[in-house]
Specification:
heterotetramer, A: about 260 residues, alpha/beta, eight-stranded mixed β-sheet, two-stranded antiparallel sheet, globular, disordered C terminus, B: alpha/beta, ten-stranded mixed β-sheet, three-stranded antiparallel β-sheet, about 35% helix
């Protein structure tokens, strides 16, 4: 069964969400991955959206963070401050799923500006919920398409803390959550080295070469000694993802949202 | 006590040049009709506050109503950039826009603090982020009991908060349901509150512990059915995703945008006429 | 994930000697059955927290379960004193009780702070009051932005919060309605949460934006119909005002109280048997 | 029409509640007075109870601060933290109605202890919502039966701030609300002197002598130069109060609560 790099990215990300986990879901790729997990191996994952739905079980992917579908299928809908205060800051979120515009070798994220803050070359949308998801979720999964424009040696702006300057930099600041535990791209999966916290390729998607990964990374990227090949999607994973995207396209009259 | 009045009158009497104004609604119940009316009445120098300045603030900023923005995520959800916001920030068109940039958690907290009449809010966050470097209103303090370091931020206390809701009764009690965002907190934090509603009814018939803004909190209620378009009102109409996509092309170019605002907002009497004109432009395109 | 279990098991596994325990319910939905079970299992040295320690804490204190109390109003509502609380404070019987005394606003705030995982809460209050003189956990700080003086208080983070609610579903989602007090915040602030309920149902059928505690927050659900007696459960039964009045005579005298607790709580297997024995004593009196 | 001193106390207190005011209501005498006002001259008063009901319109008086009747008749019922944070601290309460165990000449209130705090002669119930009502309500009305045991020269404990040491002491502490504007008893009405803030008898109920008031006050009590006689209850006031208490007695099988 053939599949696209976007599909393996979403499926590989979905696999990282444990069943029963409380997951803080961003719109776009994270929402696709979290819902795929819920529809396959993690039926008891509790999906929380920052607009207020807790336990959302959307039948079609939301196009916005506050689609009515999320409210209609949730266990409950609370005001946004409760999501951030009682759930995220409250330490009740197991997994935060984030996207990003730029990422560095320590999985710090920039969604604010390209260029100087006061004279930006590109003004990006900004932080959203990311800085506090990055701080307070017990662990963070990052899902992002890989390219040298996105995987940069130095961020113009750190919006959300990954492992900062590496090593125990994050622990020294007493940030509550563990931070990024994996970066899942359309080429590979990276994890922070247990000691230096530098992102290291641990799994390569089928058909991708290390050279392609190097070319798509703005720094000399490390590979684990025992780098694996990402298991191919199962028929269930692929069918479920495609059916979800098909239902979504029909419902919205458009392809699924891309952030 | 609440006045039940037209949106034109409410904006005329309650929104002043230079005011700090929050139009809230988290994807759901965005008060678009009120945003248009503020443009129609050509308010200037507004200090806009909103977690997610989307189309409604792109329109206000591009129309020259705002000089300052406190926010946490400025994009067209599911589509991409807010071109008018970017043009103001990147090239100061039609005028410079001072940014006060926070995270969502902080903004939500700051509304809660404002509603509670506290001057500041406290949160766990921003450690390692560059945001406090560029926003000097994000500071850090130590807990008086545990000595932990925590971030603090000024409370949001708008002069006017504007929201859209499903129903009001004739005394001015307002009921909303579905995705609530920060609307209740934004309203309770404000000096004056304008609520546009889908319906005005004799009796709210609200379930127990529903989200109700009592009339004592609401300055004006305006009957604006459809007033959240292109956002949605749960139980009334769905989100017009196509308009969000279409907005990308309208807002990308200064001239196209300006002509659009002239024809659809400035040259229309109200939001009902805007909807008619919009239907005509769509018809013409089809 | 929530366990659906007996109250006896829930208290046995989740409430330990020395724990900080909050049994909340503001007149409505007071978790009386759970209070009895804690006495029945003879917990010691509890740090009790509750805005309004009424009959339920009078019983726990008089039974020797508590060594410390954080509270804001300790009376028998509409009747008078809590004689067991007074005896502990005034004459250290059956053991001394350390008091940490706050105001209602502060207690409510401190639960909110606990639910939000903050170490302290901020409020406007206590100026000119003697409470901060005797409670060194009430302090003052200055706003980092305005320099205003504000009161601060340590967040409440119970080891266990116990509440009573109308309904749970079989996954452990809990629905309550009517007067909500601080139950949601007390539950969200706790490490472990026990909820006794009137009914366990297949589906909650809750209205939009109802007060629901998701299963992820609830450690144990116990089916205890009538478990809020002599308080009430909106939609199920009303408050037994006569029992509140009768309690004044029971609690006034150490021996009468001790005999009552022995017969009605220690010698009964559970709250259902307590209700039967109580009905018999009433019958005997009549 | 004859009436009791308790009746004139409740009626005189009710008269002080302006129509349309947002009123924070304590249980007992304050609740009786506030509901009498609502049923007579102040139909648009918004009654708030600390347990959560906003706009309660009870047909019978609640025996507890959280009776179901309050929830059933309210415009909405919010969690208790919202009452204290968004309404009271939020500066949205026009009038706070308080009772007390002890009061001094500057209308400071003690509901905590008689005797030393650490070795109390009588342990009273404590603060409840009073300290913050006393601070944050725009104005405070105190309703309490008058006796030398209650009106004392010096409080053993200041639970809730009145005018503290008098003069501008309260303003110097930047307490938001104006503080007590009247003390309504079964004998008279006192108001703070505009300058010294010492409680001054401004109105005496019919049939009460100044001597009775002096005997029931633990300090040499001041009388205004133009002290008035409290107007007798109107038939409407008295009938409404008695009917309310009658309904309450029938519903609860007891007399109306007394705090």
């Amino acid at each position: 069964m053939s599949y696209t790099t976007n599909e393996i990215m979403t499926i590989a990300a979905a696999r990282r969400l444990p069943d029963g986990a409380v997951c803080f879901v961003g719109i776009g790729l994270p929402s696709t991955a979290a819902n795929l997990a819920r529809l396959t191996h993690a039926p008891n994952a509790l999906l929380i959206y920052e607009s207020g739905p807790i336990g959302a079980k959307p039948d079609v992917l939301p196009l916005s963070i506050g689609d009515g579908e999320l409210a209609d299928t949730a266990d409950t809908v609370v005001p946004t401050p409760e999501i951030f205060r009682y759930w995220l800051q409250g330490g009740r979120v197991d997994v935060g799923f984030l996207g990003t515009a730029q990422i560095d070798r320590f999985a710090n994220l920039n969604t604010t500006v390209i260029g100087p803050y006061d004279k930006p070359k590109v003004r990006l949308p900004g932080a959203g919920g990311a800085p506090e998801i990055a701080s307070n979720a017990k662990e963070v999964l990052i899902i992002v398409r890989q390219s040298a424009r996105t995987f940069v040696p130095k961020l113009d702006f750190i919006t959300s803390a990954g492992h900062l300057t590496g090593g125990d930099a994050r622990a020294r600041l007493k940030i509550p959550g563990k931070g990024p535990v994996a970066v899942i791209t359309d080429l590979c999966i990276m994890e922070p080295d247990p000691v230096t916290r530098e992102l290291t390729v641990v799994s390569i998607h089928a058909g991708i070469t290390p050279e392609q990964i190097r070319a798509a990374t703005g720094w000399p990227v490390l590979f684990a000694a025992d780098v694996r090949q990402t298991p191919d999607p199962s028929a269930l994973e692929l069918d479920t993802l495609r059916a979800l995207q098909q239902r979504t396209a029909v419902a919205h009259g458009t392809a699924s949202s891309s952030e | 006590m609440t006045e039940i009045t037209s949106l034109r009158e409410a904006v005329a009497h309650l929104v002043k040049d230079g005011d700090c104004v929050a139009l809230e609604g988290f994807t759901h119940l965005i008060p678009s009709a009120a945003g248009h009316e503020i443009i129609r009445q050509a308010r200037k120098d507004l200090y806009l506050v909103r977690m997610t300045p989307d189309l409604i603030y792109d329109q206000l900023i591009g129309s020259g109503c705002a000089s300052r923005l406190r926010f946490s995520w400025g994009g067209n959800p599911g589509v991409g950039s807010l071109h008018r916001l970017r043009d103001a920030v990147e090239r100061q068109w039609p005028q410079p826009l001072a940014l006060e940039e926070h995270g969502h958690a902080d903004m939500a907290n700051a509304y809660v603090a404002g509603a509670a009449n506290l001057p500041f809010s406290v949160l766990r966050g921003y450690q390692g982020s560059d945001l406090p470097t560029y926003n000097h209103n994000i500071r850090f303090m130590r807990c008086p009991f545990t000595d932990e370091e925590l971030a603090v931020s000024p409370a949001i206390r708008p002069d006017v908060t504007v929201i859209h809701a499903q129903k009001a009764d004739r005394r001015g009690n307002v009921l909303l349901w579905g995705i609530l965002g920060v609307q209740k907190e934004a309203a309770m934090a404000a000096k004056r509150v304008i609520v546009t509603v889908e319906e005005i009814v004799d009796k709210l018939d609200a379930p127990p512990n529903a989200c109700i803004l009592p009339s004592a909190v609401v300055t004006a209620v305006c009957h604006e059915p459809g007033g959240a378009f292109p956002s949605y009102a749960h139980g009334y109409y769905v989100r017009d995703n196509r308009f969000y996509i279409a907005w990308d092309d309208i807002a990308r170019d200064r001239d196209v945008f300006t002509a659009w605002v002239q024809r659809h907002i400035r040259d229309t009497a109200d939001f009902q006429e805007f909807r008619q004109v919009l239907a005509q432009s769509k018809g013409a395109q089809a």
